[in-house]
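Human: I would love a firmer grasp of how sequence relates to backbone shape in proteins. Could you go through the record with me and say what the backbone is doing? Here is the record:
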Amino acid sequence: MKFNQVTIKDIARELNISPSTVSRALKDHPDISVDTKKAVNALAEKLNYQPNIVALSLRQKKTNTIGVIIPEVVHFFFSTVISGIEDVAYQAGYNVILAQSNESYAREVAHVKTLFNSRVDGMLLSLSRETANFDHVESIISKGVPIVFYDRMYNSPTSSKVIVDDYAGAKEAVNHLITEGCKNIVHLVGAPNLIISADRLRGYKDALKENKMEIKDSLILSCDTGTFEEGKSVTQKLLASGTKFDAIFANNDPMAMGATMAIKEKGLKIPQDIAIVGFSNWFFGELMDPSLTTIDQPGFEMGQEAARLLIKQIDMKEKDQYEPIEEIKVLKTRLVIRNSSLKKQQKKS
């Protein structure tokens, strides 16, 4: 069975009035009588009339829709970001179209094009771990579409960003491990294309330097996919190599969880033998045994700030005041201390 969308012309034909009268009645125009408005609205409801959003957007040059591209929906941090975005967008009268790159550069490029062709008023984007070329983003920016990056970005002078202080968070994590008496701290590094990976590595190195500890290349290990599986396999290889280490600072919580599994399977104790700290504060980290010490990122706040910044730029564009400039908001991280890193406490007990 074929279903056709009811139009203003259909309502006008049924009531034997002009389409323009129907249109004005639906908009509660003062020139239209109360009886006509009642008749039009009653029939519109009966026929389940819905405004043609595409036609409206062409006339108004606005869809009240923003596009959001996220690397992974299943990632706990990104799910909190989405909640923050939708909280602000809904209150401002915007709809949200969500697309997942699934950490794929090709998908990210396709989603950016699709959202642009859907005439979204602006985009919120967190880069995939594969993304090293940014032509697709620059192309959209050059067409006057506001884009705000959240969490993962690149150094573009024509787009705004909402990020956390990854450097300070990593430094605090490593300083905590040093305070707990750790001497040989491994760092599981994230995807090489991402600035957040470089910032967390820099924080790790500077914490060691400031504590007059040697930076050992043998303790800096790449985990390009950033997954639980890779965190586990890299740690298994490290344990098998005989390399001496007493702590791990992982680029994210899934990698830290994978490392935890490898250490337990080896018959070692956490944190007595090896202490562990992650980054991002996944909900599951608190449920682990031992519970995972981590760096908390304010995901909900990040989503809110990114949405506010984007909507502000969209409003400026409506007033012909928008220019693609760089505005950066940096949010603070927080060290969440749990049992996986408390070496001193375990020695006392």
The chain has three domains: 8-51, 63-164+299-331, 166-297+335-348. Residues 187 and 247 are 9 Å apart (CA to CA). The first strand starts at residue 65 and ends at 70.
